[in-house]
Backbone:
């Protein structure tokens, strides 16, 4: 369904510095109807790789195929049309605050040039029903919880009836209980609608809950991949240090003779700040995504 062949993305150098190779010759085959997890620490290149799939970030080298079409061979109107088959959601939800829930969902249909108003209404209702928010259609984002906001974002992504749903840290701003709910909706969407899901996260719990296959990223490269079911095997031994850390759950520190304690990973210590940064970053991309 999704095929990445030797995909690289290099950002130009800042003054006096080297260019940043955010994605470095990644090849990945993602079968139709599967859930692919991509995990790694902050800065590993996960978001860039995800944005390479819908060409929100055009790779500087390599080829991207989605549903039999080589996206990297397209531009302009043809690329825009191909992107309608690919939905995307973000850590920061990216809802438009002065539009109702229904209007937020309808936005993606307007960008997709679904010109008939009655058809747009039908599809908005259909998408909101999938995430069980039909009764919140006329409310505004400010009246919703974080989990509900993310469900609206899922509805907005589904309204154009995509074949692929790209998820960039979709639960990183949510508490564990809400995370479970949102992941359940993503699992249902995958199972009931057959949508191929790619989910980027730094949380192994998310991968364990949802993914069929895992790719571990470090320094722009996929350094390890395995079926997610391996994580349940007691004798499973990731090949890389980062894979081991991610599978093992927790940094271990020596507290001067006391038993080593699990502490939170660095990325999780300042969730609010991270969320804010991600939201600011995401909002730049909203018009492109819903377009
Ligand atoms: N638009 C950009 N311009 C320059 N550098 C970027 C840009 N986007 C990401 N980077 C850099 O690319 C690397 C990978 O970033 P990113 O894909 O956001 O990683 P992750 O999502 O795993 O945290 C980082 O070093 C980041 O600073
Ligand atoms: Mg990221």
Residues:
């Amino acid at each position: 369904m999704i095929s990445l062949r030797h995909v690289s993305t290099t950002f130009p150098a800042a003054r006096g510095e080297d260019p940043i190779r955010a994605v470095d010759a990644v090849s990945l085959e993602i079968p139709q109807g599967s859930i692919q997890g991509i995990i790694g620490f902050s800065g590993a290149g996960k978001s860039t790789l995800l944005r390479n799939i819908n060409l929100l970030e055009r790779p500087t080298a390599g080829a991207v195929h989605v549903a039999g079409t080589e996206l990297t061979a397209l531009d302009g109107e043809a690329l825009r049309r191909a992107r309608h088959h690919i939905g995307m959601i973000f850590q920061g939800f990216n809802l438009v605050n002065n539009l109702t829930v229904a209007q937020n969902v309808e936005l993606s249909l307007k960008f997709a040039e679904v010109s008939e108003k009655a058809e747009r209404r039908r599809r908005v209702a259909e998408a909101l029903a999938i995430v069980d928010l039909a009764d919140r259609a006329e409310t505004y984002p400010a009246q919703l919880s974080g989990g509900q906001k993310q469900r609206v974002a899922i509805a907005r992504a589904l309204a154009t009836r995509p074949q692929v749903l790209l998820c960039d840290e979709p639960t990183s701003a949510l508490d564990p209980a809400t995370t479970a709910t949102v992941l359940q909706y993503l699992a249902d969407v995958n199972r009931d609608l057959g949508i191929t899901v790619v989910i980027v996260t730094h949380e192994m719990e998310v991968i364990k809950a949802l993914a069929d296959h895992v790719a571990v990223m470090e320094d722009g490269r996929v350094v390890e991949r395995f079926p997610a079911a391996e994580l349940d095997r007691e004798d499973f031994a990731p090949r890389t240090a980062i894979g081991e850390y991610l599978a093992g759950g927790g940094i271990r520190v020596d507290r001067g003779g006391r038993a080593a304690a699990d502490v939170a990973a660095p990325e999780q210590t300042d969730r609010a700040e991270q969320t804010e940064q991600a939201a600011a970053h995401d909002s730049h991309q909203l018009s492109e995504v819903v377009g």
Q: What stands out?
A: Residues 271-290 form the longest helix (20 residues). Residues 260-269 have pLDDT under 50 and may be disordered. The chain is about 35% helix and 25% strand. Residues 41 and 202 are 6 Å apart (CA to CA).
